[in-house]
């Protein structure tokens, strides 16, 4: 995504690699990469973020997940989470802003649980009905490759 957005842009992404420190002793809990471009010829601002993190859920997170129907047990619940997101704001107001984020969350162990989340949207400053139809048709075509029930569901 970063190399594609940089092509012909006249700008480069600033790349920041980070490590998530979660334990009092500074033990790493994964990390990620944040890529930002500003004031380009095509993009006013563009960002791409990738993360792969792991650790132990807080008691508050466990309670919140239980309240949403997740069958968690024990006081110590380990997790792994991965995500990718991007927001692109073009200079031209007739080109819509694009955003997506997709994530995977897993609780490993004997009673392993996992799920995906996220989504995508197009936010036009000036509505172009044909752009909106094309955007949604492209998403529908991608979903339909896996089952006709997915586009209406998601």
**Termini, distance in Å?**
23 Å
Which structural class matches the secondary elements?
alpha+beta
Task: State the low-pLDDT regions, or none.
Answer: none
Tell me the helix content. 10-25%
> What is the overall silhouette?
flat
- Element order, helices and strands? HEEEHEEEHH
Major pleated sheet: 6 strands, antiparallel
Q: Kindly state the mean pLDDT as a whole number?
A: 89
Portion in strands = 35-45%
Query: If you compute it from the alpha carbons, what radius of gyration comes out, rounded to the nearest whole angstrom?
Result: 19 Å
Note the total helix count: 4
Describe the strand arrangement of the main beta sheet, using strand numbers: 1-2-3-4-5-6
What can you see in these coordinates?
It is a single chain. The chain has 154 residues and is an alpha+beta fold. The chain is 22% helix and 44% strand. It contains four helices and six strands, in the order H-E-E-E-H-E-E-E-H-H. The protein has helices at residues 2-6, 59-67, 129-144, 150-153; strands at residues 14-21, 28-38, 43-56, 78-90, 97-107, 113-123. A six-stranded antiparallel sheet has the order 1-2-3-4-5-6, with no helix packed on it. Strand 2 and strand 3 form a beta hairpin. The longest helix is centred in the last third of the chain and has 16 residues, at 129-144. The mean pLDDT is 89.
């Amino acid at each position: 995504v970063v190399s594609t957005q940089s092509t012909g842009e006249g700008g480069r992404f600033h790349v920041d690699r980070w490590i998530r420190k979660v334990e009092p002793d500074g033990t790493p809990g994964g990390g990620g990469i944040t890529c930002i471009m500003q004031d380009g010829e095509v993009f006013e601002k563009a960002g791409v973020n990738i993360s792969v993190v792991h650790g132990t859920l807080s008691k508050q997170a466990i309670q919140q997940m239980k309240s949403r129907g997740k069958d968690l047990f024990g006081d110590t619940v380990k997790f792994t989470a991965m995500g990718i997101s991007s927001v692109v704001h073009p200079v031209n107001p007739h080109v819509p802003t694009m955003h997506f984020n997709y994530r995977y969350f897993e609780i490993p162990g004997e009673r392993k649980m996992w799920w995906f989340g996220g989504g995508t949207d197009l936010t036009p400053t000036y509505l172009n009905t044909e752009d909106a139809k094309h955007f949604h048709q492209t998403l529908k075509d991608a979903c339909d490759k896996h089952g006709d029930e997915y586009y209406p569901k998601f």
